[in-house]
Amino acid sequence: MCLAALSALLAALAPANAFTYVNSGRATCSHQHRTHRVANSQQLSMTKTTLTDETTWRLRLLLNDLTTAQGQKLNGQLFVIEGSFIEEEGYEPPQGIFQPSKDVSRTEDDIISLEISKSRWTLSEDPNDKKDGLWIWGLFKEPLYPFMLLQLETKEFKLSSSQNSERNDANNSTDSIPPLKLYAQISHIRNENVGVELKTANLNVRVLERVQLPGASVDLYEEEKVGQVSFQPL
User: Fold this and answer.
1) Which of 35, 38, 209, 232 sits most deeply, having the most CB atoms within 10 A of its CB?
2) Whether residue 69 has pLDDT greater than 70
3) Would you state the pLDDT for residue 162?
4) Which residues is 210 bridged to in the sheet?
5) Domain ranges (residues) in the chain
6) pLDDT of 95
7) Cα 211 to chain center, whole Å?
8) Integer Cα distance of 144 and 134 in angstroms
């Protein structure tokens, strides 16, 4: 009887919000965990690579078997270009220009950069497969374009005296790489975790061949490999 009375007295003296406080603490902790997860998710989405000015890309152009203005062969010359892929609104498939950065970041020694005069990129299905794409039937949340078709036009590049000497330039005059029109068909992937991925691809130039026919001539273009281009998001 005394024990029952003592228990009732202790229950009456206990703070009314004792258990409420514990539950509130647990709820607050759970809320903090949810907020932390949401913040991490937002941060991950913000760091995804894109084809917009939010992502800077480093393009490495390794040129081989290229002829200079004075007829010298250029082999194994690496050029670096940094910039962003800017999409132009109102086009389907998505397309736009490559906007070079003003300065290439000097994270490596002896970086040589080509100056871009004109550029164009277009997302594409297989350009050699002319059948209708599956995306037009609304089978996917967004169109699937497994390729990017990239065209870069460069300005004339003056070779340094050391580069001339490496190529045995006998007349000691300044040699140069003439303006180029470079083409590449690049594998384009949309990764849910990291965003856009662009794979290493061949760099080509288009060689003009004029075919003479009876009473007319036809210009034919054939692509010739001159190197490779690789892509690194910064």
Assistant:
1) 232
2) yes
3) 56
4) 219
5) 2-45, 49-233
6) 96
7) 38
8) 8
Q: Which amino acid is at 193?
A: N
Question: For residue 146, is the peptide bond before it cis, meaning its omega torsion is within 30 degrees of 0?
Answer: no
Which among 32, 28, 50 has a CA at the least distance from the CA of 40?
32
Secondary structure (3-state) at 215: coil
The whole-angstrom separation of Cα 125 and Cα 136 is 12
The two three-digit tokens of residue 94, written as one number = 């998505």
- Asked whether 54 and 99 are in contact (CB, 8 A), the reply is no
Q: Is the pLDDT confidence value at 38 over 80?
A: no
Confidence bin at 122 (pLDDT 50/70/90): very high
Instruction: Find the mean pLDDT for residues 43-66.
Output: 85
Give me the count of residues in the chain: 234
pTM summary value: 0.69
**Beta pairing class for 201-213 and 181-191:** antiparallel
Q: Which residues pair with 206 in a beta bridge?
A: 223
Alpha-carbon span 204 to 210, nearest angstrom: 19
Lookup: tokens for 9: 């007295």
- CA dist 45 and 30 (Å) reads 23
